[in-house]
Specification:
The chain has 222 residues and is α/β, with parallel strands linked by helices. It contains eight helices and seven strands. It has one domain (2-217): Spore Coat Polysaccharide Biosynthesis Protein SpsA, Chain A (Alpha-Beta Complex). It has helices spanning 21-27, 29-48, 64-71, 85-98, 116-125, 166-176, 193-197, 209-217; strands spanning 5-12, 53-59, 76-79, 103-107, 131-135, 141-147, 182-183. Helix 2 packs antiparallel against helix 8 (209-217). GO terms for molecular function: transferase activity.
């Protein structure tokens, strides 16, 4: 049932020079910050259009006040807990299952054009398997999900985060724990100017309206 499904969104406090640093090398820190905020708003709009619960996990912990002033009080906000990205994801999922949800998928904030159909496919897959994984074109993944009963925290162990082997080694970890995850279509997260250029956003019909409007306003359409 949809009421037992939760989307976990990882975000960072919107501070210039601290978000989308690789993108900033191509568009500048000011534009990278503005685009990051657009990305987050686009993902929030997408999830808002669905029946799923949304749990927003933020970093750093001291950024809560800034995030509240930006996003308002309509969202369930929780601090990311852990040292590595793997620890943070593992803890967020465990926290979500402890809150009573039966299925959870975790995504990042650099997916302005991700459609709800992808998330829906992930939740549907979790009706028949315990894990789901969405590979990104850079060798990482843009989505990971589990059922509460099939959650294996050790999936996140010994992963070299930020490398092009993250998806491969995560898949190996699934297999080592006898879980065969459902693999979603490859999707492109937006880390660089080249990724932004490849988006191909349509201002008339496409998703990511916050991102599209900003690019048009600043003359950054490609």
């Amino acid at each position: 049932m949809t009421k037992n499904n939760a989307v976990i969104l990882f975000i960072k406090s919107p501070e210039k020079g601290r978000v989308k640093t690789r993108l900033a090398k191509g568009v500048g820190e000011k534009a990278a910050l503005a685009l990051y905020q657009c990305f987050v708003m686009d993902v929030l709009d997408m999830v808002r259009s669905t029946p799923w619960a949304l749990r927003v996990y933020y970093y750093p912990e001291k950024g809560c006040r800034r995030i509240r002033s930006w996003l308002g009080n309509d969202w369930d906000l929780f601090p990311q807990v852990g040292t590595t990205l793997g620890d943070k994801m593992k803890n967020a999922l465990a926290d979500t299952f402890a809150a009573g949800y039966e299925r959870a998928v975790l995504i990042g904030s650099d997916l302005p054009d991700i459609p709800s159909d992808i998330i829906n496919t992930a939740f549907n897959a979790l009706n028949s398997t315990d894990g789901v994984l969405g590979p990104s074109s850079d060798g990482g993944y843009y989505l990971i999900g589990f059922t509460a009963k099939g959650f294996v925290p050790r999936i996140f162990n010994n992963i070299p985060w930020g490398t092009n082997r993250v998806f491969e080694l995560t898949l190996n970890n699934f297999q080592d724990h006898a879980v065969s995850p459902f693999c979603l279509p490859v999707w492109q997260d937006i880390d660089t100017k080249e990724d932004l250029q490849a988006l191909g956003l349509d201002p008339a019909t496409g998703p990511a309206m916050h991102t599209t409007r900003y690019l048009q306003k600043k003359g950054l359409t490609f």
